[in-house]
TrEMBL record:
Domain Thioredoxin: 10-165
Reactions listed under catalytic activity: a hydroperoxide + [thioredoxin]-dithiol = an alcohol + [thioredoxin]-disulfide + H2O
Species this protein is from: Alicyclobacillus mali
Superkingdom as given in the UniProt entry: Bacteria
Entry's family note: Belongs to the peroxiredoxin family. Prx6 subfamily. Belongs to the peroxiredoxin family. AhpC/Prx1 subfamily.
Active-site feature positions: 51 (cysteine sulfenic acid (-soh) intermediate)
Subcellular location: Cytoplasm
Pfam families for this protein: 1-cysPrx_C, AhpC-TSA
Subunit structure, interactors included: Homodecamer. Pentamer of dimers that assemble into a ring structure.
Protein name: Peroxiredoxin
EC numbers: 1.11.1.24
Residue sites binding substrate per the record: 128
Chain residue ranges for the region called Disordered: 1-20
Misc remark: The active site is a conserved redox-active cysteine residue, the peroxidatic cysteine (C(P)), which makes the nucleophilic attack on the peroxide substrate. The peroxide oxidizes the C(P)-SH to cysteine sulfenic acid (C(P)-SOH), which then reacts with another cysteine residue, the resolving cysteine (C(R)), to form a disulfide bridge. The disulfide is subsequently reduced by an appropriate electron donor to complete the catalytic cycle.
C-alpha cells in the first residue's frame, strides 16, 4: 500500500464521515439520519458462519436498539444481490427477519472512509468494526474485532446506554457499568472545589476519594 493509499481512522468526537450508499433498503445518506443514533458495523463477507450468527443476534435485539433511537446499518464488500440472497437465507435459518439495511460497498468507499480494511487481516474484506454515531452526527465510540471473533450485542447496547446516560446527566460511567448502576460525577477542577466525605454525603454522593464520587441517576 502506497503512502497515498494509507487509510486514516475517523477520530472520536469529530463529525462521522458522511456517505451515500446503496443498501438492501435502497439508497441511504448518513447525514439524512440526524436526530437518530447510528450503529454502523461491518462484517467480512456474506454467507460466512460467524457473520451469520452476528446478523441473527442483531436481528433478535433490533427492538432494543429501536427503543434507544438507534438505526443499525450493516456493511460488507458484497453486492446488493448477494446481501439480499444472504438475508433471505438467514431469515430461514434463524427464524427472524433482518430489519436493518446492509450497505453494498463494492467500491470500498465507505470501508476506506472508516478504516475498515486492514491488509494484514485481508486486502479485500472488512474486519469487524462498530462505529457509534450520535444524533448530531458525531462519532462517539468505535470497536474493532478480528475476523474470527464475533461481537457481543449486549456490549454494543451497553455502550449506547453509557453514552446516552453520560450525555443526559453530565457524568461518566465506570468499569463494568450497567444501566441502573451508580455513575461517576465530574472530578473537582480546583483545590477549592474538593469536598470532604461529609460534604459529599450531604449531597447524596458515594465518596470514594476526593477525585472519585459516585451517585445514582
Amino acid at each position: 500500500m502506497s503512502m497515498s493509499e494509507v487509510q486514516t481512522l475517523p477520530r472520536l468526537n469529530e463529525p462521522a464521515p458522511d456517505f451515500e450508499a446503496n443498501t438492501t433498503h435502497g439508497k441511504i445518506k448518513l447525514s439524512d439520519l440526524r436526530g437518530k443514533w447510528v450503529v454502523l458495523f461491518s462484517h467480512p463477507a456474506d454467507f460466512t458462519p460467524v457473520c451469520s450468527t452476528e446478523f441473527g443476534a442483531f436481528a433478535r435485539r433490533y427492538e432494543e436498539f429501536e427503543k434507544r433511537n438507534v438505526q443499525l446499518i450493516g456493511l460488507s464488500i458484497d453486492s446488493v444481490q448477494s446481501h439480499l440472497a444472504w438475508v433471505h437465507d438467514l431469515e430461514k435459518a434463524f427464524g427472524v427477519k433482518i430489519p436493518f439495511p446492509v450497505i453494498a460497498d463494492l467500491d470500498m468507499k465507505v470501508a476506506n472512509l472508516y478504516g475498515m480494511i486492514h491488509p494484514a487481516a485481508n486486502n479485500t474484506s472488512t474486519v469487524r468494526t462498530v462505529f457509534f454515531i450520535d444524533d448530531k452526527g458525531i462519532l462517539r465510540a468505535m470497536i474493532y474485532y478480528p475476523m474470527n471473533v464475533g461481537r457481543n450485542i449486549s456490549e454494543i447496547l451497553r455502550v449506547i446506554d453509557a453514552l446516552q446516560t453520560a450525555d443526559q446527566n453530565g457524568v461518566s460511567c465506570p468499569a463494568d457499568w450497567q444501566p441502573g448502576d451508580p455513575v461517576v460525577v465530574p472530578a473537582p477542577a480546583t483545590l477549592d472545589a474538593i469536598e470532604s466525605e461529609e460534604e459529599a454525603a450531604a449531597k447524596g454522593l458515594d465518596y470514594k476519594t476526593w477525585y472519585l464520587c459516585m451517585k445514582k441517576v
